[in-house]
Amino acid sequence: MKSLILAELGVILTLLFGSCTYESYKKEIAPDLMDEADEAIVYSQFVDSLKYIPLETTSACLISSITDVQISEEFIFVFDENMQTVWIFSKEGKYLNHIYHHGDAPGEYHNICQFEYDSVNHQIVVLDMWTRSLLFSSILFSLG
Fold first, then answer.
1. CA-CA distance, 52 to 75, in Å (whole number)?
2. If DSSP states are collapsed to H, E and C, what string results for 98-117?
3. pLDDT over 90 for what percent of the chain?
């Protein structure tokens, strides 16, 4: 009797697990956007004007690479992740100053991953990924 119940249970489990299979239908899709585009999109469709502002280059301001750019009413800010520096320019592109406070002391950072300009308080807010902290630097102090 016991062997009959075990045999039936074995058949039921075999049917149950044998009929329920999981197949992964992972399919990678890599669209070719250039091939799928019907027509070209030109800047004039969504931009009314462009202005080229050459940024002043001096021995004190040598940008390695541009990671991010922010433009305010008064300034152009350029974040150079390689040099861990935020460069500050006038709206005309004249080099004014930079923010570089790399180190372990209070008010210094290890690894900038992002920055924002607070136009109300005239300060740059730097996100230090290493210490997971925000550092605030006054623009008026930096320019003075």
1. 15
2. EECCECCCCCCECCEEEEEE
3. 16
pLDDT confidence of 21, banded at 50, 70, 90?
low
Q: What is the DSSP string of 7-40?
A: HHHHHHHHHHHHH-------------HHHH-SS-
* Geometric angle at alpha carbon 59, from 54 and 60, rounded to 5°: 90
Q: CB-based burial of residue 127 (10 Å sphere; 0-12 exposed, 13-18 middle, 19+ buried)?
A: middle
SS3 call for 139: helix
Q: Which residues of 23-55 are buried (b: 16+ CB within 10 A; e: fewer)?
A: eeeeeeeeeeeeeeeeeeeeeeeeeeeeeeeeb
Q: Is the pTM of this model over 0.85?
A: no
Helix (H, G, I), strand (E, B) or coil at 119: coil
Pick from 133, 97, 95, 98: which is nearest to 112 by CA? 133
> In 10 A of CB 56, how many CB atoms?
14
Asked if the model's pLDDT at residue 59 lies above 60, the reply is yes
In sequence order, the 6+-apart residues with CB closer than 8 A to the CB of 119 are: 72, 73
Answer whether 135's CB lies under 8 Å from 116's CB: no
